[in-house]
Design a protein that fits this description.
The structure holds 2 protein chains of 2 kinds.
Chain A lengths: L13 H21 L10 E8 L2 E9 L5 E11 L2 E6 L2 E4 L2 H29 L1
Antiparallel strand pairs in A: 1-2, 2-3, 3-4, 4-5
Chain B lengths: L3 E3 L11 E3 L1 H28 L21 H15 L5 H4 L3 H13 L5 H15 L5
Antiparallel strand pairs in B: 1-2
The chains are: A alpha+beta, B mainly alpha.
């Protein structure tokens, strides 16, 4: 999985090591998140993940019928005054439906990711 | 580094012997889980207090507005229509209009001739001169 917002680099300090582990886990979560919204058409790749406590990211790329690659990254910023959607540097307020859908997706993401981590722990014991 | 065997998970397509380091498991529990729980809680609070903008249904297309014409413009159009069709139902309103009389003279001169386009051109020229259009 190649997520542009999560660049890969070789960690040196403990902080960098933790950051590298977190990125690894986020990549795993992004795969789980990408499956929350049903099956994808062939050639599509989708990730949905929680970047930090106030940022959710939807990343999708696909190849069109002419073989051209497309990428769309949508960032949802959770601010006290409301939720903003950022696409190509353009900020938009979310509609009521979008807010409902985002909250539902985030709750489902939490359930699936926590279940995945619980399985990791069970198998580690 | 101590590793352990991790069984394959449905849907991940990973190898059955995928290995995870303990620090990864530890970070998943003490790093990611609280962060995700906090993010979802924050999202829930903001979503409840700011539920997003209301999108009104698209309005039905408005019928084309009736043009607000000046009396001069109405007369000008009617004179053109009248010159072409010969239906002079605005004649009483125009009877004191000297330009109208001039037109009538021109129309009389052209009576019987099949020069509709010429007639239109003359009417337009006269009308534009008598009733200049707004810039």
């Amino acid at each position: 999985v190649n997520i542009p917002v999560l660049p890969k680099f070789s960690p040196r300090t403990p902080e960098e090591q933790y950051a590298a582990i977190e990125r690894k886990l986020i990549r795993r979560e992004a795969k789980i998140g990408g499956k929350l919204f049903g099956p994808l058409p062939k050639g599509h790749d989708r990730q949905f993940f929680c970047l930090d406590e106030h940022t959710w990211v939807w990343h999708e790329n696909w190849t069109d019928k002419n073989g051209q690659r497309h990428t769309l990254t949508t960032r949802y910023e959770i601010r006290p005054e409301g939720i903003l959607k950022v696409q190509n540097g353009r900020y938009q307020q979310l509609t009521r439906n979008e807010v409902k859908n985002l909250l539902k997706a985030a709750e489902l993401y939490q359930d699936r990711v926590f279940a995945d981590y619980d399985r990791m722990l069970q198998h580690a014991a | 580094m101590t590793t352990f065997n991790f069984p394959s998970l449905p849907g991940f397509g990973s190898s059955p012997e995928k290995r995870f380091a303990p620090e990864i498991i530890s970070f998943a529990f003490y790093g990611r889980k609280p962060k995700i729980a906090g993010a979802v809680a924050k999202l829930r609070i903001v979503a409840n207090s700011n539920p997003g903008i209301e999108v009104a249904p698209a309005p039905a297309p408005a019928p084309p507005a009736e043009p607000q014409l000046s009396l001069e413009e109405i007369q000008r159009r009617e004179q053109i229509r009248m010159a072409v069709t010969g239906n002079d139902f605005l004649a009483p309103a125009l009877q004191n209009d000297t330009s109208h009389a001039d037109w009538m003279a021109k129309l009389d001169m052209m009576a019987g001739e099949d020069k509709l386009s010429e007639l239109r051109r003359i009417v337009d020229e006269e009308t534009d001169r008598e009733y200049p259009r707004a810039a």
